[in-house]
User: What shape does this take?
Amino acid sequence: MTDFYKQIIENNKKWVESQLSLDPNFFKDLSKGQQPPLLWIGCADSRVPANQIIGAKPGEVFVHRNIANMVIHSDMNMLSVLDYAVNALKIKHIIVCGHYGCGGVQASMGNNSIGLIDNWIRHIKDVYRLHQSELDSISDEEARFNRFVEINVQEQVYDLAKTSIVQAAWKNGQDLNLHGWVYGLNSGYITDLEVNFSSNKDLEEVYKLRF
Ligand code: CO
Assistant: This one.
């Protein structure tokens, strides 16, 4: 057992005590159920902890994280989280939050094979190909990387809007709003990319579903 492993169990005990001192019913109330207004789709990166960076309490954010905050429409894990969030919890906002300095995005810009993950990273390469002319025109490497992080988030928001789950919710008149954000690892601040969807009217024709 490492010291870190022991420490985090101690941390948990202290956290429970401090929560109870603020509100003796904290856990009792949470155990009754959840009604989070927000689904967060973020990167698995340890430096981007969803609740912490937006000051949200337990019960306020439904979270899905994977490498490079991808919305892959055949990913059963993502689809299950999305379906439950939209259709059972009736969440009102979905935020795709990427971050500058994302290792997954960076890997997709290179050619080194890393292993099985190459196949996940390939989805990000597909985004690069879609925006190749803009990205290739940025000569500064860091600026190109930063812009690609933003473009990737934007495409993942589009991919969310294209899902049958989200389009069916809109069709049923559900108030469901999609947003794209980028978190700055070196500043702590979030940039709202202002890619917002609350209906399928701005989707390319071929992706619009009729029910
Ligand atoms: Co990342």
